[in-house]
Amino acid sequence: MVSSTTLAAAIALAASSSTVNAFTSSTSIAVGNHAASAVVGRPLYASSADLSDYMAKSHEEKLRAVKDIEDKKNAEIKVRNLLLLLILLRIINVFVLAEWDMYV
User: Could you tell me if 32 and 55 lie in one domain?
Assistant: First the structure.
């Protein structure tokens, strides 16, 4: 069973809401002692162009962050490869000197 105040709030909610879409915000209205949430035609963004700009900037920031992480990873790989090369050269040097000492 629905109380009369709940029914009145639902009727007021239906009567007060204009067009509802994904980009509207909500406000509350009071009927008697109960408050109900109503969706009004006040957009969250100034326009669809603003939303598109926001999404484009967000995407650019994400791409920039991914590029920064990739650059850092690639720099670490280059340093690791350089260290491995230096170790390998040192090992080769030790063996060459050992061979040279055998002939001298």
Answer: no
43: pLDDT confidence band, cut at 50, 70 and 90? low
52 in Cβ contact with 74 (< 8 Å) = no
Cα–Cα nearest to 9, from 32, 26, 42, 27 = 32
**Cα dihedral sign, 96-99-100-101:** positive
Which residues are 43's β-sheet partners?
24
Q: 73: domain range?
A: 46-104
Give this prediction's pTM: 0.44
Q: Are residues 34 and 57 in the same domain?
A: no
